[in-house]
Write a structure and sequence with these properties.
Elements (H helix, E strand, L loop, with lengths): L15 H22 L5 H37 L2
């Protein structure tokens, strides 16, 4: 009986779909393990930092709005509008 030439001393490769599935399962397990080791902030710290981010965003918005108004007036004066 003739053997398939692909079977002679050649290891079979795992299909790419099986490899992707095994990788994704392993990756999910690693993510869960990492999330268990994370030091999560307290509720108060999260609230305080969130308020700080919103305050800085509002302050930057006001500052950039004022800079835009000044530049608009300067360009208007230069162009004679």
């Amino acid at each position: 009986m003739a053997r398939d030439p692909r079977d002679q001393g050649v290891t079979r490769r795992v299909s790419s779909e099986v490899a992707r599935r095994a990788f994704s399962i392993r990756a999910i397990g690693e993510v869960i393990g990492e999330l268990r080791r994370v030091t999560w902030p307290t509720r108060e710290e999260t609230f305080r930092l969130s308020v700080m981010v919103v305050a800085v965003a509002v302050a930057m918005g006001i500052f950039l709005g004022l800079v835009d108004l000044v530049f608009a007036r300067v360009v208007g004066i230069i162009l004679g509008n």
